[in-house]
Amino acid sequence: xDPDRIRNTSIIAHIDHGKSTLADRMLELTGAVExxxxxxxxxxxxxxxxxxxxxxxLQSVRLRWRDHVVNLIDTPGHVxxxxxxxxxxxxxxxxxxxxxxxxxxxxxxxxxxxxALENDLAIVAALNKIDLxxxxxxxxxxxxxxxxxxxAAEILHISAKTGAGVAELLDAVIERTPPPSGSADAxxxxxxxxxxxxxxxxxVSSVRVMNGVLAAGARLRFMQAGxxxxxxxxxxxxxxxxxxxxxxxxxxGYLIAGIKDxxxxxxxxxxxxxxxxAPGPLAGYREPKPMVFSGLYPIDGDELPxxxxxxxxxxxxxxxxxxxxxxxxxxxxxxxxxxxxxxxMEIVRERLEREFDLSLISTAPSVEYRVTVRGxxxxxxxxxxxxxxxxxxxSVAEPYLAASVIAPSRHTGVVMELCQSRxxxxxxMRYLSPERVELSYRLPLAEVVVDFFDQLKSRTQGYASLxxxxxxxxxxxxxxxxxxxxxxxxxxxxxxxxxxKAYGYGRAMTAKLAELIPRQQFExxxxxxxxxxxxxRETVKAYRKDVTAKLYGGDVTRKRKLLEKQKAGKRRMKSIxxxxxxxxxxxxALTLD
Length: 593
What we know:
Elements: E1 6-13, H1 19-29, H2 47-52, E2 59-65, E3 68-74, H3 82-89, E4 94-100, H4 107-118, E5 122-128, H5 137-148, E6 156-157, H6 166-176, E7 189-198, E8 202-211, E9 214-215, E10 219-222, E11 227-230, E12 233-237, E13 241-243, E14 246-247, E15 252-256, E16 270-273, E17 292-298, H7 304-317, E18 322-328, E19 332-339, H8 342-355, E20 360-362, E21 369-373, E22 378-381, E23 393-408, H9 412-421, E24 425-433, E25 436-444, H10 445-448, H11 452-459, E26 465-476, E27 478-485, E28 488-489, E29 495-498, H12 499-516, E30 524-530, E31 533-540, H13 556-576, H14 583-590
Parallel strand pairs: 1-3, 1-4, 4-5, 5-6
Antiparallel strand pairs: 2-3, 7-8, 7-16, 8-15, 9-14, 10-11, 10-16, 12-13, 12-15, 17-19, 17-20, 18-19, 21-22, 21-23, 23-25, 23-26, 24-25, 27-28, 27-29, 27-30, 30-31
Helix pairs in contact: 12-14
């Protein structure tokens, strides 16, 4: 196909600004989907996406509009899935920047826009939801011009819900997006920007051809993996799979090459012809760095091989998480997994349970600490059980984030109070308009990942938005809190926290476990300790059997003798007895509040 007739673009925006709804209207307007087949969030293929009302995975589709082909990618908006946005931008020449006409610029709007500028992409800006009573498109167009430098006169006003202005937006995409560069005569270079595993057909990869021609039946070399496979099927998503004979430079589609080993077609892989290979691979993608760590354990230990296979297949489709084997004295064998954030962790766990029919326990989330031990050695600790003894530790450094919060100016006080209560260092305050302010803070990652976002939304009545990126490490007064049952530590409940919050965590965990652990034949002490110092204690009282019930009169010494015998038995049982912790107690105690 003539490259001058091809346009490659992505829809980027803050979460809930209408990306998926806009993609629906484009599918209807271009006739890609018949009216009787149309449904909301058409490109969101996972049940999880429909239930939560968010996009988790990027989705590509090929549209025809005014003698042109538009390859469109719908991307997620949540900060945890920003790596999906960066992957889609590598396959495009422009972006459609969608901004809510009733809310204006949000934190992720800024982050995504700067990402597009870094990739030197053309930006087609559109103010969505102009049909809302609270919409003020002229005011927010001026805000976009002031903050992002995009001319207000070129910003389109649309409603993805009613379809108003969507045709003009497609025209603007064709007019402002440069056609793809690349030569059909050059050796083949194709960039895989997404993959998933189909149990019947193997790995199905989304590919953008940069140079050369990708033809069906050709012998292909996957340059980073070093594997060679035949192209069984090549096609385009319209949005149904439509096989084609070849894809030329600038075109995007899918590739099926009968690959069963999921490690051979990861995102960022370069595809070339085996007989005439390209001189070198494309730049690919920078691997996202996990920020939150949690252990995943099967409730049934026999499901460990299935969990390993499920993690391997899911990682093909989601390059943002890592995993490695680990074992726990309380939970058995499992995997230590790294995620990009708390929502990402919840999504991965739920996908494992739904798509692979697994029952899992996840430990409390933690972050990656850098521990300096006496004598000058350094260790990286992502699991509290790996923490060296307190006597050997010289210092502990924790990861920090550069956080940006955009909120109405009337909520400035509550946002600052929240950030300072989470040990945040104030950076700067910038007014985007008289009514809206951007606050910059440097925050410890451990204080952000658990419930910071929920608290932020709650205190600002839902109006604040958050974006963050890693900002190095800094030393902190951190301690490891162990939970002891009958004097024995249970590694699943250990936690690394700031010393000021250690007592609160110890009290909360011991109280929770006291409710969850069933009574035994002997008294069970539950303690929280820092090193050798106990900071909190609860006790599960023992069952008491009435051993004197069978007596019917006689001397009181007979009763006393039976009670002493019972006391000695309980003492012996306590010394050799084992506390039975049901799986439900682990699930409930480790569930995030």
